[in-house]
Amino acid sequence: MQALRRVFALNQNASWTRTVLATQQKSCLLSSSSILDIGIGLSAEKRQIQELALTFTQNEVAPHMQKWDAEHIFPVEMFTKTAALGFGAIYCKEEHGGSGLSRLDASLIFEAIATGCVTSSAYLSIHNMCAWMIDSTGTEEQRAKWLPQLAPMSRLASYCLTEPGSGSDAAALKTTAKSDGNYYVLNGSKAFISGAGATDLYLVMCRTGADGPKGISCVMVEKDTPGLSFGKIERKLGWNAQPTREVVFENCRVPKSNRLGPEGSGFGLAMRGLNGGRVNIASCSLGAAHASLLAAREYMTVRKQFGKQLAEFQALQFQLAEMAAQLVSSRLLVRQAAQSLDSGDPGAPAVCALAKLHATEQCFDVCNRALQLFGGYGYLLDFPVQQYLRDSRVNCILEGTNQVMRMLVARDIIGRLGDA
Amino acid sequence: YIHIINKADMAASKGLKILVGCKRVIDYAVKVRVKPDRSGVVTEGVKHSMNPFDEIAVEEAVRMKEKKLAGEAVAISVGPPQSQETLRTALAMGIDRAIHVEIPLAQLEKLQPIHVSKLLAKVCESEKPDLVILGKQAIDDDCNQTGQMLAALLDWPQATFASKIEPSQDSKQLRVTREVDGGLETIDVSVPAVVTSDLRLNEPRYATLPNIMKAKKKPLAKMSPDQLGVDLQPRQEVISVEDPPVRKAGAKVESVEDLVGKLREKGLVK
């Protein structure tokens, strides 16, 4: 701390920014405030798991966050290390290499990793979602073949639902899978696919039957299958540490044995995958907000104007208090959603939608406020808050837009239109 | 107390039994603050973790098990109830079982290496380890005493600041490389012995999720200083704890003559 002040006083340029960042990265997450305790309400056992994820993140993820964003690096080696800890298939059964843990454990892990890189945590959660879809719905052969590869992340997975013509209206998807003996022939394209081109297995929701959700099946397509190709890498506001591309199918022949579950069950499977996916992506938002809030607090104890630390101005103190309310309320709601999934609560999908809606919006606002508290420095790419902001912005959009989340929540409150 | 192991057995036997000491300390990255009453530092609500040198000691014990040099590894921690979390971490890294010597809160702040080494010596009487590995020092008090005191109490050889531990050439002893001021010193010690770990001994592994789950089933025994018959009377009294003085600004000089002139002014040079 003293070193920070001294350097700032002597030298008000780039060298100060580096010192701030280095100190921040290490001590940022060690808040001694009980409100901001990332382990709030957790048992000693859950804290131990969270501790592991946080330590790993501080050592192996956070130091590279900036570089991965600037140079658009998809950190496959780092994912392999997370998988070695058991983070590759957190809530898959242990039989084929899963960790056999709960959705709550997964939420803690994704939140922790997101404090060091939102994008990487988000991809990890997508991979976990795909592994679970195979684990929960696959045949014994499919599970025995794929989980031993997905759990250690020696093979990576992508989830393909959205198309250029169908985002929120997911059931209107047009990619067809026509039956041809023991094969399906896929034609169509998927849009905005995370990891596309860099991953090995694509879980594709495609049309094997009539229009509407009941005509959709989930088919696994392996990389290098003839007829599978990719569009250009999209240039994005954030999530730069992950390639996002169109996935194109042109008479792509896939064995029927790659279908997950019966024909016509694909939409339901996709939606069940998304329930967990929503908790996970909301958890990533929590991590971003947590890191941003602590960074802002740290900055406010260092920066002085008008002869006082920023932390002494009441207006700014009130900002921190409001940000804490946003973060902690989101955190508790997300963990509740995870627990309702774990307990098999039939109302879980609505809780997940609510948690996703609330956390992604509130946490983005926390990042935005944190950026403001940094003043001019907040706008510089040298400082991490702008990356948390950019990376968490898309969380309000994917895995179901927050507008769709509102639809789901309202439906739960009022009941389906036309239902008694 | 003397415990003699048949030295010829070391290579062929089930392996050494290792006792590893772990201390729960304030996390290295925390900004430590002095209490307003200057009686100590703020520990409540502050993040704690396993002393980094002890993590290295735990890692070494687990590696020796993996190399079949050791058969059983037991972790021990002397401290408050929360020391159990530290022991759970050790178990999750691969230690077989743990012992917690619980110190009541009133006596905790006054606990010194002399007390800890006596407690450990008592435990060694019943556990009969072949090797005790401790961190060379704890990052809260930086004492660097417990290992040495323990060896003296037990009348065992000691090899402190270890950067490498391996069997000796004839496999009847341990060959330990020590980091000393003059460089590296290599010594052979017979077992049982006390070794303290230095920074470059190894890089500790992360626990894995499966190991964290397995650790829940590993035995964790509790003991009290009374049961061990050790008196925790403090030998020292802390009078006050203060921040180091704020560093004053220096002055830049333009030339060697200026520098010598300034040194003369301050009476540091004739």
From TrEMBL, chain A:
GO terms for biological process: branched-chain amino acid catabolic process. The keyword Transmembrane does not apply. GO terms for cellular component: mitochondrion. Its cofactor is FAD. SUPFAM superfamilies: Acyl-CoA dehydrogenase C-terminal domain-like, Acyl-CoA dehydrogenase NM domain-like. The lineage of its organism: Eukaryota, Metazoa, Spiralia, Lophotrochozoa, Platyhelminthes. The keyword Flavoprotein applies. Residues 44-151 form the Acyl-CoA dehydrogenase/oxidase N-terminal domain. This is Isobutyryl-CoA dehydrogenase, mitochondrial. It comes from Macrostomum lignano. InterPro entries: Acyl-CoA_DH_CS, Acyl-CoA_Oxase/DH_mid-dom, Acyl-CoA_Oxase/DH_mid-dom_sf, AcylCo_DH-like_C, AcylCo_DH/oxidase_C, AcylCoA_DH/ox_N, AcylCoA_DH/ox_N_sf, AcylCoA_DH/oxidase_NM_dom_sf. Belongs to the acyl-CoA dehydrogenase family. It catalyses: propanoyl-CoA + oxidized [electron-transfer flavoprotein] + H(+) = acryloyl-CoA + reduced [electron-transfer flavoprotein]; (2S)-2-methylbutanoyl-CoA + oxidized [electron-transfer flavoprotein] + H(+) = (2E)-2-methylbut-2-enoyl-CoA + reduced [electron-transfer flavoprotein]; 2-methylpropanoyl-CoA + oxidized [electron-transfer flavoprotein] + H(+) = 2-methylpropenoyl-CoA + reduced [electron-transfer flavoprotein]. Residues 159-252 form the Acyl-CoA oxidase/dehydrogenase middle domain.
From TrEMBL, chain B:
The keyword Metal-binding does not apply. It is found in: Mitochondrion matrix. One of its GO terms (molecular function) is electron transfer activity. Residues 38-232 form the Electron transfer flavoprotein alpha/beta-subunit N-terminal domain. Transmembrane segments: none annotated. Its main location: mitochondrion. The keyword Isomerase does not apply. CDD domains: ETF_beta. GO terms for cellular component: mitochondrial matrix. GO terms for biological process: amino acid catabolic process; fatty acid beta-oxidation using acyl-CoA dehydrogenase. It holds the Pfam family ETF. It comes from the Eukaryota. Keywords: Electron transport, Transport. Heterodimer composed of ETFA and ETFB. Identified in a complex that contains ETFA, ETFB and ETFRF1. Interacts with ACADM. PANTHER family: ELECTRON TRANSFER FLAVOPROTEIN BETA-SUBUNIT, ELECTRON TRANSFER FLAVOPROTEIN SUBUNIT BETA. Heterodimeric electron transfer flavoprotein that accepts electrons from several mitochondrial dehydrogenases, including acyl-CoA dehydrogenases, glutaryl-CoA and sarcosine dehydrogenase. It transfers the electrons to the main mitochondrial respiratory chain via ETF-ubiquinone oxidoreductase. Required for normal mitochondrial fatty acid oxidation and normal amino acid metabolism. ETFB binds an AMP molecule that probably has a purely structural role. Belongs to the ETF beta-subunit/FixA family. This is Electron transfer flavoprotein subunit beta. It comes from Macrostomum lignano. The lineage of its organism: Eukaryota, Metazoa, Spiralia, Lophotrochozoa, Platyhelminthes.
